[in-house]
What we know:
two-stranded antiparallel sheet, 13 helices, 9% strand
Amino acid sequence: MSLSSRLPSLSRKKDALIAQLLGRVDALTRQVEGLTARVQELEIENAALRTENAALRAENAALREKLTLPPKTPDNSSLPPSRGQKANEEPSRKPKATAHAGAHRPLHPNPTRTRDILAEACPHCRADVLGVTQTAVHVYDRIEIPQIKPDVTQVRLHGGTCPCCAKRFTAAAPAGLEPGSPFGPNLRAFVIYLRYTQAISFERLSGLMSDLLGVAISEGALVNILADSRSAFACQAERIRERLLSSTILQSDETSVRVGKRTWWTWVFHHDRDCCFVIRPSRGKDVVADFLGEHRPDIWVSDRLAAQAGWARRAHQVCLAHLIRDAQHAIEAGDTAFAPGLKKLLQRACGMGARRPDLADATLRSYASQLKTRLHDLLRRVPTHALGDKLQRAIKACRQNLFVFLTDRAVPPTNNGSEQGLRPCVTYRKVTNGFRSEWGAKLYADVRSVLETARRRAVSALDAIRLTLLGSALPAGP
Protein backbone atom coordinates (compact mmCIF):
# COMPACT_ATOMS: atom_id res chain seq x y z
CA MET A 1 0.00 0.00 0.00
CA SER A 2 1.36 3.33 -0.96
CA LEU A 3 2.02 6.19 1.46
CA SER A 4 -0.69 8.32 -0.06
CA SER A 5 -3.28 5.62 0.54
CA ARG A 6 -2.31 5.29 4.23
CA LEU A 7 -2.36 9.02 5.07
CA PRO A 8 -6.15 9.27 5.61
CA SER A 9 -6.07 6.30 7.98
CA LEU A 10 -3.18 7.76 9.98
CA SER A 11 -4.90 11.14 10.12
CA ARG A 12 -8.07 9.55 11.53
CA LYS A 13 -6.09 7.67 14.17
CA LYS A 14 -4.26 10.86 15.08
CA ASP A 15 -7.49 12.78 15.43
CA ALA A 16 -9.00 10.00 17.54
CA LEU A 17 -5.92 9.93 19.76
CA ILE A 18 -5.97 13.71 20.15
CA ALA A 19 -9.68 13.63 21.00
CA GLN A 20 -9.05 10.89 23.54
CA LEU A 21 -6.21 12.85 25.09
CA LEU A 22 -8.30 16.02 25.19
CA GLY A 23 -11.10 14.13 26.92
CA ARG A 24 -8.64 12.78 29.43
CA VAL A 25 -7.25 16.28 30.00
CA ASP A 26 -10.80 17.61 30.58
CA ALA A 27 -11.51 14.82 33.05
CA LEU A 28 -8.27 15.49 34.89
CA THR A 29 -9.03 19.22 34.90
CA ARG A 30 -12.44 18.61 36.40
CA GLN A 31 -10.88 16.25 38.94
CA VAL A 32 -8.28 18.86 39.86
CA GLU A 33 -10.97 21.50 40.23
CA GLY A 34 -12.99 19.15 42.46
CA LEU A 35 -9.95 18.37 44.56
CA THR A 36 -9.11 22.05 44.80
CA ALA A 37 -12.65 22.86 46.02
CA ARG A 38 -12.46 19.97 48.49
CA VAL A 39 -9.12 21.27 49.76
CA GLN A 40 -10.66 24.70 50.24
CA GLU A 41 -13.59 23.15 52.13
CA LEU A 42 -11.19 21.18 54.27
CA GLU A 43 -9.15 24.29 54.96
CA ILE A 44 -12.29 26.15 56.06
CA GLU A 45 -13.39 23.19 58.17
CA ASN A 46 -9.90 22.90 59.63
CA ALA A 47 -9.90 26.61 60.54
CA ALA A 48 -13.30 26.23 62.23
CA LEU A 49 -12.08 23.16 64.09
CA ARG A 50 -8.98 25.01 65.18
CA THR A 51 -11.13 27.89 66.49
CA GLU A 52 -13.46 25.47 68.27
CA ASN A 53 -10.50 23.59 69.68
CA ALA A 54 -8.99 26.81 71.02
CA ALA A 55 -12.32 27.71 72.66
CA LEU A 56 -12.63 24.24 74.17
CA ARG A 57 -9.07 24.44 75.44
CA ALA A 58 -9.82 27.78 77.07
CA GLU A 59 -13.03 26.41 78.58
CA ASN A 60 -11.17 23.32 79.78
CA ALA A 61 -8.50 25.48 81.36
CA ALA A 62 -11.17 27.60 83.08
CA LEU A 63 -12.92 24.49 84.37
CA ARG A 64 -9.63 23.03 85.59
CA GLU A 65 -8.95 26.31 87.37
CA LYS A 66 -12.39 26.08 88.99
CA LEU A 67 -11.56 22.59 90.19
CA THR A 68 -8.63 24.02 92.09
CA LEU A 69 -10.83 26.60 93.87
CA PRO A 70 -12.01 25.78 97.40
CA PRO A 71 -15.66 24.70 97.67
CA LYS A 72 -18.17 27.39 98.60
CA THR A 73 -19.52 27.04 102.12
CA PRO A 74 -21.71 29.25 104.35
CA ASP A 75 -18.47 30.59 105.87
CA ASN A 76 -16.90 31.84 102.64
CA SER A 77 -19.92 32.71 100.47
CA SER A 78 -23.60 33.57 100.55
CA LEU A 79 -24.51 29.89 100.57
CA PRO A 80 -27.29 29.40 103.18
CA PRO A 81 -26.40 27.34 106.26
CA SER A 82 -28.97 24.69 105.28
CA ARG A 83 -26.87 23.80 102.22
CA GLY A 84 -23.58 23.53 104.07
CA GLN A 85 -22.01 20.12 104.63
CA LYS A 86 -20.96 19.46 108.19
CA ALA A 87 -17.88 17.32 108.73
CA ASN A 88 -18.21 14.02 110.55
CA GLU A 89 -16.58 14.14 113.95
CA GLU A 90 -16.17 11.71 116.77
CA PRO A 91 -18.52 12.42 119.67
CA SER A 92 -16.66 14.30 122.34
CA ARG A 93 -16.94 13.32 125.97
CA LYS A 94 -17.79 16.28 128.11
CA PRO A 95 -16.11 16.45 131.49
CA LYS A 96 -18.40 15.86 134.41
CA ALA A 97 -19.99 19.13 135.35
CA THR A 98 -19.89 20.41 138.88
CA ALA A 99 -23.11 20.42 140.82
CA HIS A 100 -25.10 23.61 140.72
CA ALA A 101 -28.00 25.00 142.65
CA GLY A 102 -31.34 23.53 141.61
CA ALA A 103 -33.90 25.56 139.71
CA HIS A 104 -37.64 25.31 139.36
CA ARG A 105 -40.33 26.74 137.16
CA PRO A 106 -41.24 30.25 138.35
CA LEU A 107 -44.69 30.64 139.85
CA HIS A 108 -47.37 32.15 137.65
CA PRO A 109 -47.78 35.87 138.45
CA ASN A 110 -51.57 35.85 137.94
CA PRO A 111 -53.02 32.43 138.71
CA THR A 112 -56.64 31.76 137.76
CA ARG A 113 -57.46 30.68 141.30
CA THR A 114 -55.62 30.05 144.57
CA ARG A 115 -56.29 27.27 147.05
CA ASP A 116 -54.99 27.52 150.60
CA ILE A 117 -54.76 24.08 152.18
CA LEU A 118 -54.52 23.94 156.00
CA ALA A 119 -53.19 20.92 157.85
CA GLU A 120 -55.84 19.20 160.02
CA ALA A 121 -53.65 16.91 162.10
CA CYS A 122 -49.96 16.64 162.98
CA PRO A 123 -48.39 13.98 160.78
CA HIS A 124 -46.21 12.87 163.69
CA CYS A 125 -48.59 12.52 166.65
CA ARG A 126 -51.95 12.98 164.91
CA ALA A 127 -52.87 15.90 167.19
CA ASP A 128 -55.50 18.39 166.01
CA VAL A 129 -53.76 21.51 164.59
CA LEU A 130 -56.69 23.39 163.08
CA GLY A 131 -56.47 26.02 165.81
CA VAL A 132 -52.74 26.60 165.22
CA THR A 133 -51.59 29.59 163.14
CA GLN A 134 -50.22 28.19 159.86
CA THR A 135 -48.08 29.81 157.15
CA ALA A 136 -47.40 28.82 153.54
CA VAL A 137 -44.56 26.31 153.45
CA HIS A 138 -44.80 24.82 149.96
CA VAL A 139 -46.25 26.78 147.05
CA TYR A 140 -46.52 25.36 143.54
CA ASP A 141 -48.63 25.69 140.37
CA ARG A 142 -50.77 23.05 138.72
CA ILE A 143 -51.31 24.06 135.10
CA GLU A 144 -54.13 22.59 133.06
CA ILE A 145 -56.16 23.58 130.04
CA PRO A 146 -59.93 23.13 129.98
CA GLN A 147 -61.56 20.82 127.51
CA ILE A 148 -61.68 22.63 124.20
CA LYS A 149 -65.21 23.02 122.88
CA PRO A 150 -66.40 25.42 120.20
CA ASP A 151 -68.52 28.31 121.45
CA VAL A 152 -71.41 28.31 118.97
CA THR A 153 -74.00 31.07 119.02
CA GLN A 154 -77.03 30.26 116.92
CA VAL A 155 -78.72 33.48 115.88
CA ARG A 156 -82.42 33.39 115.11
CA LEU A 157 -83.72 36.58 113.53
CA HIS A 158 -87.43 36.69 114.12
CA GLY A 159 -89.93 38.53 111.99
CA GLY A 160 -93.54 38.79 111.07
CA THR A 161 -96.14 41.00 109.43
CA CYS A 162 -96.58 44.64 110.41
CA PRO A 163 -100.15 45.28 111.56
CA CYS A 164 -99.91 48.87 110.33
CA CYS A 165 -98.59 48.52 106.76
CA ALA A 166 -99.09 44.78 106.35
CA LYS A 167 -95.47 44.33 105.16
CA ARG A 168 -93.04 41.65 106.26
CA PHE A 169 -90.26 42.60 108.67
CA THR A 170 -87.16 40.84 110.10
CA ALA A 171 -85.17 41.71 113.20
CA ALA A 172 -81.80 43.38 112.62
CA ALA A 173 -78.75 41.22 113.34
CA PRO A 174 -76.75 42.25 116.43
CA ALA A 175 -73.31 43.79 115.97
CA GLY A 176 -70.66 41.15 115.44
CA LEU A 177 -73.20 38.46 114.58
CA GLU A 178 -74.15 39.55 111.09
CA PRO A 179 -75.03 36.89 108.46
CA GLY A 180 -72.16 35.63 106.35
CA SER A 181 -69.20 33.53 107.37
CA PRO A 182 -70.00 31.35 110.38
CA PHE A 183 -66.48 31.72 111.77
CA GLY A 184 -65.67 34.41 114.31
CA PRO A 185 -62.55 36.62 114.40
CA ASN A 186 -60.74 34.54 117.05
CA LEU A 187 -61.13 31.33 115.06
CA ARG A 188 -60.11 33.11 111.85
CA ALA A 189 -57.03 34.52 113.58
CA PHE A 190 -56.14 31.05 114.82
CA VAL A 191 -56.39 29.63 111.28
CA ILE A 192 -54.19 32.41 109.85
CA TYR A 193 -51.68 31.97 112.66
CA LEU A 194 -51.31 28.22 112.08
CA ARG A 195 -51.15 28.61 108.32
CA TYR A 196 -48.58 31.39 108.08
CA THR A 197 -46.45 30.99 111.21
CA GLN A 198 -46.38 27.19 111.45
CA ALA A 199 -46.67 26.49 107.68
CA ILE A 200 -49.41 23.88 108.16
CA SER A 201 -50.97 22.59 104.95
CA PHE A 202 -54.72 22.92 104.35
CA GLU A 203 -55.27 19.18 104.68
CA ARG A 204 -53.48 18.94 108.01
CA LEU A 205 -55.01 22.20 109.20
CA SER A 206 -58.50 20.87 108.51
CA GLY A 207 -57.74 17.74 110.53
CA LEU A 208 -56.18 19.78 113.33
CA MET A 209 -59.23 22.03 113.65
CA SER A 210 -61.49 18.99 113.81
CA ASP A 211 -59.38 16.95 116.26
CA LEU A 212 -58.15 19.76 118.51
CA LEU A 213 -61.02 22.25 118.52
CA GLY A 214 -63.92 20.07 117.51
CA VAL A 215 -64.74 22.38 114.58
CA ALA A 216 -65.28 20.76 111.20
CA ILE A 217 -63.80 23.09 108.55
CA SER A 218 -63.24 21.95 104.98
CA GLU A 219 -60.16 22.92 103.01
CA GLY A 220 -62.32 25.16 100.82
CA ALA A 221 -63.63 26.97 103.88
CA LEU A 222 -60.05 27.49 105.09
CA VAL A 223 -59.15 29.03 101.72
CA ASN A 224 -62.20 31.30 101.99
CA ILE A 225 -61.09 32.44 105.45
CA LEU A 226 -57.72 33.47 104.02
CA ALA A 227 -59.26 35.10 100.97
CA ASP A 228 -61.71 37.14 103.08
CA SER A 229 -58.83 38.50 105.19
CA ARG A 230 -56.92 39.96 102.23
CA SER A 231 -58.29 43.48 102.51
CA ALA A 232 -57.62 43.71 106.25
CA PHE A 233 -53.98 42.66 105.91
CA ALA A 234 -53.46 44.81 102.82
CA CYS A 235 -54.67 47.83 104.82
CA GLN A 236 -52.38 47.00 107.75
CA ALA A 237 -49.41 46.42 105.43
CA GLU A 238 -50.04 49.80 103.79
CA ARG A 239 -49.92 51.47 107.21
CA ILE A 240 -46.58 49.77 107.86
CA ARG A 241 -45.29 50.86 104.46
CA GLU A 242 -46.26 54.50 105.04
CA ARG A 243 -44.55 54.47 108.43
CA LEU A 244 -41.48 52.82 106.94
CA LEU A 245 -41.22 55.36 104.12
CA SER A 246 -41.16 58.16 106.68
CA SER A 247 -37.82 56.80 107.92
CA THR A 248 -34.51 58.21 106.74
CA ILE A 249 -32.88 54.75 106.60
CA LEU A 250 -33.99 51.68 104.66
CA GLN A 251 -32.58 48.16 104.48
CA SER A 252 -33.47 45.59 101.84
CA ASP A 253 -32.78 42.10 100.54
CA GLU A 254 -34.51 39.43 98.44
CA THR A 255 -34.83 35.67 98.02
CA SER A 256 -36.51 33.42 95.48
CA VAL A 257 -39.96 31.84 95.81
CA ARG A 258 -42.18 29.75 93.55
CA VAL A 259 -45.54 31.17 92.50
CA GLY A 260 -47.46 28.81 90.28
CA LYS A 261 -44.86 27.38 87.92
CA ARG A 262 -42.58 30.43 87.86
CA THR A 263 -39.80 31.78 90.04
CA TRP A 264 -40.71 35.03 91.77
CA TRP A 265 -38.85 37.02 94.41
CA THR A 266 -39.66 37.86 98.02
CA TRP A 267 -38.38 41.33 98.88
CA VAL A 268 -38.02 42.76 102.39
CA PHE A 269 -37.79 46.48 103.18
CA HIS A 270 -37.30 47.37 106.83
CA HIS A 271 -35.70 49.47 109.51
CA ASP A 272 -36.09 49.69 113.26
CA ARG A 273 -39.67 48.64 114.22
CA ASP A 274 -41.24 48.44 110.76
CA CYS A 275 -40.83 45.72 108.17
CA CYS A 276 -42.63 45.29 104.86
CA PHE A 277 -42.54 42.34 102.43
CA VAL A 278 -43.53 42.22 98.77
CA ILE A 279 -43.52 39.28 96.36
CA ARG A 280 -42.93 40.17 92.71
CA PRO A 281 -41.98 38.31 89.51
CA SER A 282 -38.90 40.51 89.14
CA ARG A 283 -35.56 40.99 90.84
CA GLY A 284 -34.93 44.31 89.16
CA LYS A 285 -35.07 48.00 89.99
CA ASP A 286 -38.75 48.20 89.04
CA VAL A 287 -39.70 46.46 92.31
CA VAL A 288 -37.83 49.01 94.42
CA ALA A 289 -39.18 51.91 92.36
CA ASP A 290 -42.75 50.65 92.79
CA PHE A 291 -42.30 50.26 96.55
CA LEU A 292 -40.67 53.65 97.14
CA GLY A 293 -42.76 55.77 94.81
CA GLU A 294 -41.46 59.34 95.09
CA HIS A 295 -39.75 58.73 98.45
CA ARG A 296 -35.97 58.47 98.65
CA PRO A 297 -34.28 57.65 101.98
CA ASP A 298 -31.09 59.33 103.09
CA ILE A 299 -29.23 56.04 103.59
CA TRP A 300 -29.74 52.59 102.07
CA VAL A 301 -28.32 49.35 103.50
CA SER A 302 -28.09 46.24 101.31
CA ASP A 303 -25.74 43.91 99.51
CA ARG A 304 -24.09 44.85 96.21
CA LEU A 305 -26.99 43.80 93.94
CA ALA A 306 -27.36 46.47 91.25
CA ALA A 307 -31.14 46.66 91.70
CA GLN A 308 -30.65 47.86 95.29
CA ALA A 309 -28.08 50.53 94.48
CA GLY A 310 -28.63 54.18 93.68
CA TRP A 311 -31.75 54.80 95.79
CA ALA A 312 -30.23 56.73 98.70
CA ARG A 313 -29.99 60.49 98.58
CA ARG A 314 -26.88 60.65 100.75
CA ALA A 315 -25.07 57.31 101.13
CA HIS A 316 -25.31 53.56 100.57
CA GLN A 317 -23.91 51.15 103.18
CA VAL A 318 -22.96 47.78 101.66
CA CYS A 319 -23.04 44.63 103.77
CA LEU A 320 -19.60 43.99 105.25
CA ALA A 321 -20.54 40.41 106.20
CA HIS A 322 -20.87 39.50 102.50
CA LEU A 323 -17.46 41.00 101.77
CA ILE A 324 -15.85 39.17 104.69
CA ARG A 325 -17.12 35.85 103.30
CA ASP A 326 -15.86 36.77 99.82
CA ALA A 327 -12.47 37.57 101.33
CA GLN A 328 -12.42 34.20 103.09
CA HIS A 329 -13.13 32.46 99.77
CA ALA A 330 -10.24 34.31 98.11
CA ILE A 331 -7.95 33.37 101.02
CA GLU A 332 -8.87 29.69 100.68
CA ALA A 333 -8.23 29.94 96.93
CA GLY A 334 -4.66 31.08 97.55
CA ASP A 335 -4.60 34.88 97.63
CA THR A 336 -2.05 35.95 100.24
CA ALA A 337 -1.59 39.60 99.34
CA PHE A 338 -4.94 41.38 99.40
CA ALA A 339 -7.74 39.20 100.84
CA PRO A 340 -6.21 38.49 104.29
CA GLY A 341 -5.63 42.16 105.02
CA LEU A 342 -9.10 43.08 103.77
CA LYS A 343 -10.77 40.46 105.96
CA LYS A 344 -8.99 41.73 109.08
CA LEU A 345 -9.88 45.32 108.16
CA LEU A 346 -13.58 44.57 107.71
CA GLN A 347 -13.74 42.49 110.88
CA ARG A 348 -12.17 45.35 112.79
CA ALA A 349 -14.73 47.73 111.29
CA CYS A 350 -17.59 45.47 112.39
CA GLY A 351 -16.11 45.39 115.89
CA MET A 352 -16.12 49.18 115.93
CA GLY A 353 -19.76 49.12 114.89
CA ALA A 354 -20.63 46.86 117.81
CA ARG A 355 -18.85 49.20 120.25
CA ARG A 356 -20.45 52.42 118.96
CA PRO A 357 -22.66 53.00 122.03
CA ASP A 358 -19.52 53.30 124.16
CA LEU A 359 -17.55 55.47 121.72
CA ALA A 360 -17.61 59.23 121.27
CA ASP A 361 -18.30 60.85 117.91
CA ALA A 362 -14.72 62.12 117.68
CA THR A 363 -13.42 58.60 118.28
CA LEU A 364 -15.64 57.23 115.52
CA ARG A 365 -14.38 59.88 113.09
CA SER A 366 -10.80 58.97 113.99
CA TYR A 367 -11.52 55.28 113.45
CA ALA A 368 -13.13 56.03 110.09
CA SER A 369 -10.05 57.93 108.98
CA GLN A 370 -7.77 55.09 110.07
CA LEU A 371 -9.85 52.50 108.21
CA LYS A 372 -9.87 54.54 105.00
CA THR A 373 -6.09 54.99 105.16
CA ARG A 374 -5.57 51.27 105.72
CA LEU A 375 -7.94 50.46 102.86
CA HIS A 376 -6.02 52.79 100.54
CA ASP A 377 -2.79 50.93 101.33
CA LEU A 378 -4.46 47.54 100.73
CA LEU A 379 -5.78 48.58 97.32
CA ARG A 380 -2.20 49.26 96.18
CA ARG A 381 -1.25 45.61 96.67
CA VAL A 382 -1.21 43.17 93.76
CA PRO A 383 -3.36 40.08 94.51
CA THR A 384 -1.76 36.68 93.98
CA HIS A 385 -4.91 34.95 92.74
CA ALA A 386 -7.71 35.68 90.28
CA LEU A 387 -10.33 35.71 93.05
CA GLY A 388 -8.25 38.22 94.96
CA ASP A 389 -8.07 40.41 91.86
CA LYS A 390 -11.85 40.14 91.40
CA LEU A 391 -12.41 41.06 95.03
CA GLN A 392 -10.10 44.04 94.74
CA ARG A 393 -12.03 45.36 91.74
CA ALA A 394 -15.27 45.01 93.69
CA ILE A 395 -13.83 46.91 96.66
CA LYS A 396 -12.60 49.71 94.40
CA ALA A 397 -16.11 50.04 93.00
CA CYS A 398 -17.78 50.35 96.42
CA ARG A 399 -15.01 51.77 98.64
CA GLN A 400 -17.07 54.90 99.42
CA ASN A 401 -19.90 52.67 100.75
CA LEU A 402 -17.92 50.63 103.27
CA PHE A 403 -17.77 52.79 106.41
CA VAL A 404 -20.94 54.88 106.29
CA PHE A 405 -22.07 53.33 109.59
CA LEU A 406 -19.22 55.07 111.44
CA THR A 407 -20.74 58.48 110.71
CA ASP A 408 -24.34 57.50 111.53
CA ARG A 409 -25.04 55.42 114.62
CA ALA A 410 -28.43 54.23 113.32
CA VAL A 411 -26.84 52.51 110.31
CA PRO A 412 -25.77 48.86 110.77
CA PRO A 413 -22.47 47.68 109.26
CA THR A 414 -24.07 44.52 107.83
CA ASN A 415 -27.34 43.54 106.21
CA ASN A 416 -27.90 40.65 108.61
CA GLY A 417 -31.21 42.16 109.73
CA SER A 418 -32.63 41.66 106.25
CA GLU A 419 -31.46 38.06 106.13
CA GLN A 420 -33.02 37.41 109.53
CA GLY A 421 -36.28 38.89 108.29
CA LEU A 422 -36.27 36.63 105.23
CA ARG A 423 -35.45 33.47 107.21
CA PRO A 424 -39.11 32.62 108.05
CA CYS A 425 -39.97 33.12 104.37
CA VAL A 426 -37.29 30.62 103.36
CA THR A 427 -38.56 28.13 105.95
CA TYR A 428 -42.12 28.57 104.66
CA ARG A 429 -40.90 28.06 101.09
CA LYS A 430 -39.09 24.84 101.99
CA VAL A 431 -42.12 23.43 103.84
CA THR A 432 -44.85 24.43 101.37
CA ASN A 433 -42.89 24.64 98.08
CA GLY A 434 -44.37 28.06 97.36
CA PHE A 435 -47.78 29.33 96.30
CA ARG A 436 -50.33 28.16 93.76
CA SER A 437 -51.88 31.58 93.14
CA GLU A 438 -50.69 35.16 92.93
CA TRP A 439 -53.26 36.35 95.49
CA GLY A 440 -51.94 33.74 97.94
CA ALA A 441 -48.40 35.11 97.52
CA LYS A 442 -49.63 38.69 97.98
CA LEU A 443 -51.55 37.73 101.13
CA TYR A 444 -48.52 35.95 102.58
CA ALA A 445 -46.36 39.04 102.00
CA ASP A 446 -48.90 41.22 103.83
CA VAL A 447 -49.27 38.73 106.71
CA ARG A 448 -45.51 38.42 107.01
CA SER A 449 -45.24 42.22 107.13
CA VAL A 450 -47.69 42.33 110.04
CA LEU A 451 -46.06 39.45 111.94
CA GLU A 452 -42.48 40.73 111.60
CA THR A 453 -43.48 44.28 112.53
CA ALA A 454 -45.40 42.94 115.53
CA ARG A 455 -42.37 40.92 116.65
CA ARG A 456 -40.21 44.03 116.56
CA ARG A 457 -42.80 45.89 118.63
CA ALA A 458 -43.07 43.08 121.23
CA VAL A 459 -46.63 42.19 120.15
CA SER A 460 -47.55 38.51 119.96
CA ALA A 461 -48.36 37.09 116.54
CA LEU A 462 -51.89 36.04 117.47
CA ASP A 463 -52.68 39.46 118.96
CA ALA A 464 -51.33 41.16 115.84
CA ILE A 465 -53.56 39.02 113.61
CA ARG A 466 -56.62 39.75 115.78
CA LEU A 467 -55.97 43.50 115.69
CA THR A 468 -55.55 43.38 111.92
CA LEU A 469 -58.81 41.49 111.37
CA LEU A 470 -60.60 44.04 113.59
CA GLY A 471 -59.15 46.91 111.52
CA SER A 472 -56.98 48.31 114.34
CA ALA A 473 -53.43 49.55 113.90
CA LEU A 474 -50.57 47.75 115.60
CA PRO A 475 -49.41 49.35 118.87
CA ALA A 476 -46.10 51.18 118.80
CA GLY A 477 -44.64 48.78 121.38
CA PRO A 478 -42.43 49.48 124.38
